[in-house]
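Possible regression after last week's pipeline update?

I re-ran a chain I had predicted before the update to compare outputs. Posting the input and the new output here so someone can diff against the archived version. Not blocking, just want to make sure nothing changed silently.
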Amino acid sequence: MVLKLFVVTSILIMIVFSIVMIAEGLFFERFYRMSKIHALEQNMSHFEDQYEQVGSSNQQVSRLLGAFMNDNDTSTSILNHRFERISINPYFLELQTDRQAITIRVPADGMELGAIPNGIQIGDTTVIDGIFMDEDDTVMQLVAIQQKNEDLVNGLTRVKGKITDLMLPEQRSYNPLYQDTLIDEALQDWMPKLEQYESRLQDGSLVQAEWIDNWSGVQYAILIKSLAHSENTERYLFVMTSLQPVGEAVEILKKYFVYLTPVIIMLTIILSLIYSRIVSRPLVTLNRAAARLAKLDFTMEPEIHSKDEFGELSRNLNALSQNLDTTLKELTNMNVKLQVEMEEKRRSEQLRKELIANISHELKTPLGIVKGFAEGLQDGVASDKKDRYLNHIVNETDRMNALIMDMLELSKFEVKAIHLTFRSVSMTKLVQNVVDSFSHQLEEKHLQCKLNKVEELFVKADFRRTEQVVSNLMSNAIRHAVENSVISISIERAYSGKVVTVIENAGPPIAEDDLNRVWDQFYRIERSRDRKSGGTGLGLAIVKHILELHDSEFGVANTNQGVAFSFTLYESRGEPHE
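New output (post-update):
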């Protein structure tokens, strides 16, 4: 056993070591590049989102570009629709002099990295030599940062002040000011390939390419992605990152493994020998214990009390007999859970069948009506009633179309394809507008709508979807209200910064067993499915999905007068956007 363990352990260690060396030589460089490119792709997508937010603010775009270059160690530029660089200085200093604030631009070319002293911080007082770029002397092109009292070069202007803000090259592997000057050359070499990539860029896809600096021989990865359009003007993000660290890392690893190989071989032999002797002793003891367990003899415990894996195995063998009863109980519990899951699956299958049956039922009736009237028109029966027949056909077609549209919208909610746009909405005005839109239905049924007079309350919600919720609940209240009654609507500030809206109608109550089912698809309180009551049976199901996306607390309850539907939305203290 000792010899077998020694041989097997030695061979396994050498095989693993060989695989590591081979994998390092074949795949490490590719993996390193893929990881770096993938991280850049994600950061470019994040940059696109931030770029949309800052809009046309040159100062914010400059800061955003400089931060991206520092965080990702890349040379980056924004291109116009002709794939020409847009003049943006990603690195700058904000200087407050005795008279005014001055923006110091660090040029992308003509500067050396050593020209920018290390350790510059906000609050430092410094002297800048440069050239003003505007008539108001508020923007200066940096030429030199003076830390000593040197003579001013002819043609330059010197300013002194306190640094209030800055964005300078940080955490970049090479001379960033030199590397950033290579963008024009890389872009010029890439332009002949534009035609084969232009369609992909316009579709929003990311384009990758490689470029080699002829002067230094350094290989670069180039990534180009289209940005958001602003005033019908296309913008592209051009990112160039050096791949030189990849090759250097691979070469260092190869040299490291060459020196490490003899040490690994010696350690393998020594450790395998020691390991095989240590392992063999407790294995014999565990073998005896296993033989007793095979005979169902659980009275004797293994004699190993070490704190390593063998001691743990010994304790586990001892606990095996004690845990048999516990295991049987757990199996029983798992069997109960399995039955519950099977019941849930059966219920899901039943719901699916009911959904298909409901859809078939809802479409069968209007189709039958349409067919009957159409056949009557085709056969020339009751020609004097042609207009009425056509009117019935149109009404039933509208009913089917409404049902299908509700089903399509409900399917979007169920697959999480609906995205809300939250803003500050006046709940009071929204409800009033919805009530006004139902004035005709209220008059037809001789109903009155009473909205409580409270202060105007604002909520954080999606305006269109919230309006849809109120409309569906209002339509439901009118449909089930008795004639010559009052529909009451209240909007009040509730607990924990929420606003609660309650819509109550006077009418027959809902059975207690049905209160939780009114939100189901195609569920109707009328067992006879009376078509005169209207509705597709999907309105409350859609309301449920919308309120869940708003993280709302909603429900339905019977009152002394009839039925009340309620829901909550988070209160907004901001200005309304309607």
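Follow-up from reviewer: compared with the archived run. The longest strand covers residues 157-167. Marking as no regression found.
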